[in-house]
């Protein structure tokens, strides 16, 4: 028998090296090379040889038969929405997220609510811990089987025997296979385990949900290749000190990735937030400066969300920029625009920014509300609470158009706002003669400034 070979593998990107190196030349991360043992299972001898016998015939695309896939209804509308209407049989879904965000809670809730038989495999918690959680979720079902096991070779026979309609693996990083000798959580283990499970899912048409940890950069721990192997990648995000959680599609072979699911973490589990509308408005005091409302869109749904900012003189040397739910780089860019295009000197000020509910909204239309919140706090002049904003801000200080503007205006009108500020470019495609809401079109941030902060005499 050939001696087992050891290689060093980057735990971030999966590249290999025969000896240890401090910085990965491929992905640039430091101290990520770990020694792993690789077996001699892949025989090099015939790998490059071309066979003369055709094993699998190529077929014309017009001749391929499809049977309309019947998606499995998870009985959780927000989860169905992100997947594009339910789970496709035989698909493998990876859910990533920070520790404590609620990945196990969400998966268990789905396992308990779905009418099909489910197998929940946990490598992290004991059966009694899972039972305690199920009690909190106040669900009683006999359809959910719990298995505490980490070896893939032992898990697959259970799937074969019980024939569940859905398998949940919590988590992929705790699994190990006997095929490779490295420890659980390493690149080779994750890749091998995922490969075995995915093959089983495809061959037997049983869907699998894999729960994945994320690393300090917010990516799913382990090699990127894991994300390539699965059909769907979902990210569960939010601030664990707040109650709202967003489930976002990052990759979906069976649907769009533009939809998000919104949940609220309560005492007895995650509540689906079907109508986000007014949810993220905190109804602040009229005289508070630094607070604005953005008419945002996530996926296909519009909702209004509150932005809070605090600008104060930097107490200690280097000014701080701190954000919750908004990209700090984007804030820095907006502050630079304010300095250069509107003459505000913010380089000696601390700037803090919060998006209500701690959820991250990936909508460029948030820019204008953020910028106005900073201005309002800096000037200490409150913005009228019945005014909202939707606009992207460009580097020259221009207000740029946003998608679904009609939908945003209608939602703002429905919630009782009487003014909305949007880009001048919408002039042609929006009806500004609305009954109950005044649509103000602006080209530049100077104009917004004049509308809001310069008193008319
Ligand atoms: P968990 O699902 O264990 O997170 P993950 O698997 O992503 O690490 O969620 C843990 C948090 O959720 C925990 O801090 C408590 C909270 N929680 C509730 O608020 N209500 C509940 O009903 C449950 C089950 C958990
Ligand atoms: Mg967990």
Gist of the model:
This protein is an alpha/beta fold.
Folded structure, characterized:
By secondary structure, the chain is α/β, with parallel strands linked by helices. The chain has 3 domains: 4-39; 77-274, Rossmann fold (3-Layer(aba) Sandwich), CATH 3.40.50; 278-454, Ribosomal Protein S5, domain 2. Helix content is 24%, strand content 26%. The chain has helices spanning 77-83, 103-113, 127-136, 152-162, 187-204, 225-229, 328-342, 366-379, 405-414, 445-453; strands at 5-10, 16-17, 33-38, 92-97, 118-122, 144-148, 166-170, 208-213, 232-238, 244-252, 260-266, 269-272, 291-298, 301-313, 321-324, 349-355, 387-389, 392-393, 399-400, 419-423, 438-442. The strands form 4 sheets. It has a 9-stranded mixed sheet with strand order 6-5-7-8-4-9-10-11-12, with helices on both faces. Strands 15-16-14-13-17-20-21 form a 7-stranded mixed sheet. Strands 2-1-3 form a 3-stranded antiparallel sheet, with no helix packed on it. A hairpin with a 5-residue loop joins strand 18 (392-393) and strand 19. Helix 7 (328-342) packs across helix 8 (366-379). The longest helix has 18 residues, at 187-204. The chain is globular. The relative contact order is 0.09. Magnesium ion (MG) binds at residues 103-104, 124, 170. Magnesium ion binds at residues 103-104, 124, 170.
Q: Biggest β-sheet, characterized? A: 9 strands, mixed
CATH class of the largest domain: Alpha Beta
Percent range of helical residues: 10-25%
CATH architecture of the largest domain: 3-Layer(aba) Sandwich
Name its key features:
457 residues; nine-stranded mixed β-sheet; 3 domains; seven-stranded mixed β-sheet; single chain; Ribosomal Protein S5, domain 2; binds thymidine-5'-diphosphate; 10 helices; Rossmann fold; alpha/beta; binds magnesium ion; globular
